[in-house]
Amino acid sequence: MILETSLQSATPPDAVIELRDLTREYASRAGVVRALNAISLTVQRGEWIAIMGPSGSGKSTLVNILGCLDQPTAGTMRIAGTDVHQLSRQELDRFRAEKIGFIFQQFHLIPYLTAVENIMLAQYFHSMTDEPEALRALEHVGLADRAQHLPSQLSGGEQQRVCIARALINQPPILLADEPTGNLDAANQQIVQEHLRALHRAGRTIVMVTHDPEMAALADRVVELHHGRIAAERSAS
Amino acid sequence: MSRSRFSLLILLRRGLMHRRTRSLAALFSLIVSAAVATALLTLYASLNQKLHQQFRAFGANIILTAPDGAALPPETLSTARAISGPESRIVPFAYAVAQTADGAPIVVAGTDFSAVRAVDRWWQVSHWPDAENLSADSTATAALIGTRAKNFLPGENFSLTYNGHALPLHAAGTVHTGGAEDSRVYLPLAAFTAWTSVPATTLEIQAPGSAAQVQRLLDRLRLALPGVEVHAVRQLVESEGRVVDRTRALMFYSLLLIALTVAICVLATLMASVLERRRDFAIMKALGSTQHQVSLLFLLEAILLALIGAVVGYFLGNLLAFLIGEWNFHTAILPLWQIAPQVLLLNLMVAILAGGVPMRILRAMKPATLLRGE
């Protein structure tokens, strides 16, 4: 219902993400591939949604577009009240630094920077580095004693927690998590789940791509994608 | 927020250290680039001087004679010295026909041995006459004997007679040139003049410089010495000009070709180094870095390597030029400080180009694609 009245006028007061007929096409040798096909979706502030679907359904494409790392071929996207399509390249970089925090399945830490420096790198691109604050962020994810370790000296779970601390350091309103527990064992999966729960309780908006029904069950809402379309949308509980 | 020790330079240093092998390969290629550029530019700049020096080994390039075999005017030598300048060498020659003890005629020449030694370097001399070559009684004048002159043996004393005046001589050594010199006896000019009263009839001048410079000297000599015939040794002057011009052209095109080849190698190495870090680029973009921030990081890295490469390469290049000079010209080619900025600029250009091209490629790639590892 909210979608029908959205972009022509103002964004609904609690909608932090609003997509309207979002389409993403890729040119390939086989012809044009439509990864996302006219998707419309609204995410409320503080909501945790899980995006599920088989491989190739467009989940990662959607997250990349939401994270302003990719651009839609058609349709509109408003994030935190801003029509992202209207932003210049530089404005988009700034917007991403301020509004989006990424948690990757592959962690994507810079291999030659220590845990605390990886967090400070996000601060550096946002505004100014603050080591005590970066150390506090590590403390929040239980890694205060691993601050000076390189990613190669950390376990997968620890790397993912550094990734979470990095995603949160600049207080972004939206957290995008692409298979956040996809590369973790059960114990570390549990730890990461706890962190995400805590973030959700603290009012953070989370958009999470997952194959794991157990992870999806933690979300407020589950959106299922098939062939680039929303096939189903239901409450997780 | 308080400032911390994290900075772009730390990021730069860590990145270089982390990819040590690749960084060293890039640095090595930039050192080679700077060394080759330094050596070639130094050689190119010194080539003129060195080739002219080499041509000096072929002897005099200007001959001054009096018309009809007469004596040169007395001021000829001093005038020629003043006009030719301190870098020119002048050898006077005076000739007379004397007689041996058995009455056979022999051509005797008076000259300046130290000047002959410097100018006519192709003369094959067993021992140059000097104080040590005098005979025990030291009344005999040291002489150089042409190998076809007579059967005077080195170390022997003999005497020649001119106009009834006998002159005791000591055969200090022999000379062989394959020319007329082989049938003469050479004495110091002062002793020759005191004995024969015959003044110098020929001056050989070895003048440095290009064909045009030698021609200008010829003109000045003709103007200053109107009663003297001034000839250029045409074959030498013209050959020298041609050889120097062609060698310089060859050197120039070789320099271009080598510089281009090295630049392509450096480009390939540095480009690989930048492209190798496309995932880092994508992570930084995901963290909100601007294109300028990432470009600056990659550019600073290339500039840092180029600076180190230029400094080390400059010294290695000078060493290389020095060794080439020693091996080929038997003289030292000294460093030319004025080419240092050119070498630095060249290295910086190569590095910036090498960093700029992959940055354009990276800019065109989607961070999302790079993060997926595609």
Describe it.
By secondary structure, chain A is α/β, with parallel strands linked by helices. Chain A has 8 helices and 10 strands. Chain A has a single domain, classed as P-loop containing nucleotide triphosphate hydrolases (Rossmann fold), CATH 3.40.50.300. Chain A is 33% helix and 29% strand. In chain A, the strands form 2 sheets. A 6-stranded mixed sheet of chain A has the order 6-7-8-3-9-10, with helices on both faces. Chain A has a 4-stranded antiparallel sheet with strand order 2-1-4-5, covered by helices on one side. The N terminus of chain A is likely disordered. Chain B is an alpha+beta fold. Chain B has 2 domains: 177 residues, no CATH class; 173 residues, no CATH class. Chain B contains 11 helices and 10 strands. In chain B, helix 7 runs parallel beside helix 10. The longest helix of chain B has 42 residues. Chain B is rod-shaped, with a radius of gyration of 34 Å. Chain B starts with 7 loop residues before the first helix and ends with a helix. Chains A and B meet through helix 2, helix 3, helix 4 and helix 5 of A and helix 1, helix 8 and helix 11 of B.
